[in-house]
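[Discussion] Sanity-checking designs against the backbone

I'm trying to build intuition for which residues belong where. Below is a structure token string of 260 positions. I'd appreciate it if someone posts a full sequence so I can compare it with mine line by line.
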């Protein structure tokens, strides 16, 4: 391929700022180049890039590259475009994508369904597109928050939360103080490592214990609330319904029946 024959300027590919579309491209062999506002990227096998059109991105076959083989598709679905734009801004435009990754599998499924026109209707095609989008967001999340440091921090805090629940704690302030950090600094650190907030994680751990007790014991809700650090049964019920969309009593009945 002549390098002059493959030179794409994101400002000259159509599209409208109010109605952008996404190009997702995966390199199979050789290498290409992507120039963004912030950096120049070498697109080698096992890497994928996302670009929004219109934009200032330029991707091409450089003169130094003898070949560049890839597959790609364009996404116009407004909801999916918006979700991918947000994830791309947080996790960059060029990602390593392993050949055995679920994301690549979903990308191949989507590519094949569109290329062969094998979808029975627009709903089938949309299901392939949504499956790809969700794996795209999942990989983007894990690229931002690597598993080892995330799990190490969560396991450490989980133990502290479980051991302190009966006394109503620990609170975010207490977790921060133990690490000689301010509440704000600790919250930022936690979000950087996990993508969530410490307050949300504390509630997640407590509710995990609540669900276990509801299914494995006959304790009244007031006793469970006391053991898991909630103010009372009413407070627990309110938090529980917000998370699981049903009352603790209903959760106990449903899961007790399914366990039989």
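Best answer:
Here's mine. Compare freely.
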């Amino acid at each position: 391929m002549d390098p002059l024959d493959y030179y794409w300027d994101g400002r000259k590919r159509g599209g409208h700022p109010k109605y952008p579309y996404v190009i997702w491209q995966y390199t199979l062999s050789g290498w290409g180049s992507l120039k963004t506002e912030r950096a120049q990227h070498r697109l080698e096998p096992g890497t994928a890039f996302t670009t929004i059109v219109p934009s200032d991105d330029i991707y091409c076959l450089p003169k130094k590259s003898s070949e560049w083989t890839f597959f790609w598709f364009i996404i116009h679905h407004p909801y999916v475009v918006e979700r991918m734009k947000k994830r791309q801004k947080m996790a960059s435009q060029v990602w390593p994508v392993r050949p055995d990754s679920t994301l690549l599998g979903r990308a191949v499924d989507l590519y094949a369904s569109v290329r062969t026109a094998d979808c029975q209707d627009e709903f089938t095609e949309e299901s392939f597109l949504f499956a790809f989008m969700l794996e795209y967001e999942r990989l983007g999340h894990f690229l931002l928050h690597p598993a080892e440091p995330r799990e190490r921090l969560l396991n450490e805090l989980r133990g502290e939360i479980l051991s302190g629940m009966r006394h109503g704690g620990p609170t975010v302030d207490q977790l921060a103080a133990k690490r000689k950090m301010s509440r704000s600094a600790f919250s930022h650190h936690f979000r950087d490592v996990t993508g969530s907030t410490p307050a949300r994680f504390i509630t997640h751990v407590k509710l995990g214990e609540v669900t276990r007790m509801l299914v494995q014991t006959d304790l009244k809700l007031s006793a469970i609330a006391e053991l898991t650090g909630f103010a009372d049964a009413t407070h627990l019920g309110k938090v529980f319904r917000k998370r699981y969309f049903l009352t603790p009593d209903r959760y106990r009945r449903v899961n007790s029946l399914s366990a039989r």
